């Protein structure tokens, strides 16, 4: 818990009813930053202490909570707002150079920010029994302050030498059956997130250049969870993601290593014109790239989609039921049909297409809707934490800034929970209904 300076001008009783200052109070009281502060104090040693580490840190947090897009914007607010200076523990406004030095020190201690994030995730997991059962994964584009790579590669504190071009393609189907496609390009970075889909809170993150593949970083996120939040992987039941994470190795890893059911949309990778493939070991059963399984009537040749019969965990198979039996339809060739009793489809037939939750089932569609939880977290980062309009330069600074924003988000939510204000938690973290 943060140490809040007790100055003669400062009283929480006077300002707590104000919404913005209450948010800052939640962060200062519930952020587990003692270890980081002690380490920064030790690093400073016996040098000048014009602006105490704790006061600088509190003011940085205030800048995030109050959505200041730059250090100069924060300094102007501190100059104007004596009450905020008192809350932070400042008697004078720190210089721009002081903030530059402090930010440089934070970047050098990025692992401490990650540890603070992990501690917050663990605390929320203990407070909220369902926290971590449903996970969702996605990436967020963060455009750089620059619009293109600089011609001069020499670092001078003004250029962004770490940013790279990124591209994301969004596809969908309209109500009339036609398809649409939207391609987004940017120069900058990517924030890769795993969030709790029920409460819309982050549980793992990485920050990379914009050119980094979502699939490759998806494996890194699982590695990070395994290393830093192993209990979360044991607790998780479902992981949802869009088709950008469609990868047989990632899908297999979720189920085989962690027992997590992947609900990840498929890309269309089969060759043009290839609509179905024959199910191995059968002569009249085929499947398509969307996971649907069909049988052909041996008498008329009519094709019908087989019904879902559930997942057999011990066998690693999906049960498919004869459509005549499941739906009561007439099938002239049922007597001689070799699959009248149903079929078992092993996940091993195609790990990318066949998953423990059948892709064409209602349950799969229901779980896939939880994927939008990441989009709402991303939206809060843009609107409430300033990433839509920022002046951050360099990968190290971007990692530190993203980590701090996510820690603030978690600390505010944790404060609401601990203070028995779960109903007010919706203003920070709106649960999926």
TrEMBL record:
Lineage top rank: taxon: Bacteria
Domain Transposase IS4-like as annotated: residue spans: 180-409
Pfam families (alphabetical): DDE_Tnp_1, DUF772
Annotated GO biological process: DNA transposition
Domain Transposase InsH N-terminal positions: 14-103
Any GO molecular function: DNA binding
PANTHER family recorded: TRANSPOSASE INSH FOR INSERTION SEQUENCE ELEMENT IS5A-RELATED (PTHR35604)
Protein name, as recorded: Transposase IS4 family protein
Taxonomic source organism: Kyrpidia tusciae (strain DSM 2912 / NBRC 15312 / T2) (Bacillus tusciae)
């Amino acid at each position: 818990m943060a140490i809040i300076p007790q100055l003669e001008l400062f009283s929480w009783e006077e300002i707590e009813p104000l919404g913005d200052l209450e948010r800052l109070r939640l962060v200062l009281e519930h952020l587990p930053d003692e270890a980081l502060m002690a380490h920064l104090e030790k690093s400073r040693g016996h040098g000048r202490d014009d602006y105490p580490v704790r006061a600088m840190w509190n003011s940085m947090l205030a800048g995030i909570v109050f959505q200041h897009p730059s250090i100069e914007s924060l300094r102007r607010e501190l100059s104007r707002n004596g009450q905020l200076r008192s809350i932070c523990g400042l008697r004078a406004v720190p210089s721009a150079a002081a903030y530059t030095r402090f930010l440089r020190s934070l970047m050098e201690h990025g692992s401490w920010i990650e540890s603070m994030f992990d501690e917050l995730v663990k605390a929320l997991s203990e407070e909220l029994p369902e926290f971590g059962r449903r996970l969702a994964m996605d990436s967020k584009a963060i455009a750089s302050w620059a619009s293109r790579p600089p011609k001069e590669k020499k670092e001078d504190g003004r250029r962004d030498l770490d940013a790279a071009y990124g591209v994301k393609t969004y596809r969908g189907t309209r109500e009339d059956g036609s398809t649409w496609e939207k391609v987004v390009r940017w120069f900058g970075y990517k924030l890769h997130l795993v969030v709790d889909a029920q409460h819309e809170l982050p549980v793992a993150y990485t920050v990379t250049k914009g050119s980094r593949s979502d699939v490759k970083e998806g494996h890194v996120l699982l590695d990070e969870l395994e290393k830093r939040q192993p209990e979360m992987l044991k607790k998780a039941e479902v992981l949802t993601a869009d088709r950008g994470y469609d990868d047989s190795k990632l899908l297999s890893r979720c189920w085989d290593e962690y027992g997590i059911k992947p609900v990840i949309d498929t890309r269309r990778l089969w060759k043009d014109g290839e609509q179905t493939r024959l199910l191995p070991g059968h002569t009249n059963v085929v499947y398509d790239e969307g996971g649907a399984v069909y049988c052909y009537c041996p008498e008329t040749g009519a094709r019908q989609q087989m019904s879902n019969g559930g997942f057999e965990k011990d066998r690693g198979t999906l049960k498919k039921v004869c459509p005549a039996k499941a739906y009561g339809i007439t099938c002239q060739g049922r007597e001689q049909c070799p699959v009248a009793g149903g079929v078992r489809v092993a996940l091993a037939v195609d790990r990318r297409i066949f998953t423990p939750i059948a892709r064409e089932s209602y349950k799969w569609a229901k779980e896939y809707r939880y994927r939008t939880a990441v989009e709402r977290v991303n939206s809060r980062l843009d609107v409430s934490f300033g990433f839509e309009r920022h002046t951050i330069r360099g990968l190290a600074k971007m990692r530190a800034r993203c980590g701090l924003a996510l820690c603030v988000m978690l600390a505010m939510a944790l404060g609401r929970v601990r203070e028995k204000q779960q109903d007010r938690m919706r203003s920070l973290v709106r649960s999926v209904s």
